Amino acid sequence: MSLICPSVLSADFSKLGAEVEDVLNGGADWIHYDVMDGRFVPNISIGIPVLKSLSKAVKAFYDVHLMIEEPHRYIAGFAKAGADMISFHVEAEEDCSGTLDLIHSYGIKAGIVVKPNTPAEEVFPYLDKTDMVLVMTVEPGFGGQKYMADMCPKIRAIRDEAKRIGKEDLLIEVDGGIASDTVGFTAAAGANVFVAGSSVFGKKDRAAAIESIRNAADAALVQ
Questions:
Q1: Which single residue of 2, 38, 82, 152 could bond 217 by disulfide (Cβ 3.0 to 4.6 Å)?
Q2: What is the pLDDT of residue 223?
Q3: Is there a contact between 100 and 109 (Cβ–Cβ < 8 Å)?
Q4: Spatial separation of the C-alpha atoms in residues 61 and 46, rounded to whole Å
Q5: CATH code of the domain covering residue 36
Q6: Which long-range contacts (C-beta less than 8 Å, at least 24 apart) are formed by 15-20?
Q7: What average pLDDT does the chain have?
Q8: For the chain, what is the domain count?
Q9: What confidence category does residue 148 fall into, taking pLDDT thresholds of 50, 70 and 90?
Q10: Is 205 a catalytic residue?
């Protein structure tokens, strides 16, 4: 089953709670929460205080994507602020295994992320510990970028390795340029969680946008 995860990076921050409620009412499964520090990526977004306020105001599954240096230093803060899943970049952490354990110690799900130029094999050693692998289909740091179709072989390689080791339930998330006309390629390659930014928040009818993306993903998964 496809999970649709709108990214608040594309929401109107002047009314963030209402925006999140709107996409949840429109059928969103999760809410994607992008954290940028201006060091690991060349942009700064939102952090722990905003998540704490948002999670109290609006009940949802908060999928927190840390695009930051030394992510282990901030796991406790985000976990206590309401994160249900915390994902961090393999490129930003020396002890990925330890950080996955740390996230799990707070009773939440843990994910690991790969940038476009990072080979799939970099995450293979951690598949037995991780709940999800996020494959970036754009360079991380800014919303609204064009989808990179050449990431599909990476998705397929991760899915095949997960099957090989008996990790059939591994979630594979994709983030970047995902819309109804691109999501099918990633779903056919093995992805099942889809982050959508402007293709949801940028639409007048968010429910219709979510349904369109889900239908395209599910059709590809069936094939």
A1: 2
A2: 46
A3: no
A4: 17
A5: 3.20.20.70
A6: 16/50, 16/54, 17/54, 17/57, 17/58, 19/201, 20/54, 20/58, 20/60
A7: 95
A8: 1
A9: confident
A10: no
Written as six digits, the tokens of 192 are: 């099942």
* Rounded Cα–Cα distance for residues 9 and 201 (Å): 9
**Domain interval for residue 193:** 3-222
pLDDT tens-digit map of 25-35: 999 999 999 99
Express each pLDDT in 60-95 by its tens digit.
999 999 999 999 999 999 999 999 999 999 999 889
User: Would residue 34 show up in a list of annotated catalytic residues for this protein?
Assistant: yes
Cα distances from 2 to residues 10, 68, 85, 183, in angstroms, run: 21, 27, 17, 10
Q: What is the mean pLDDT of residues 4-19?
A: 97
At 116, the pLDDT band (50, 70, 90 cuts) reads very high
Residue of 29, 34, 37, 63 marked catalytic: 34
CB 84 within 8 A of CB 63: yes
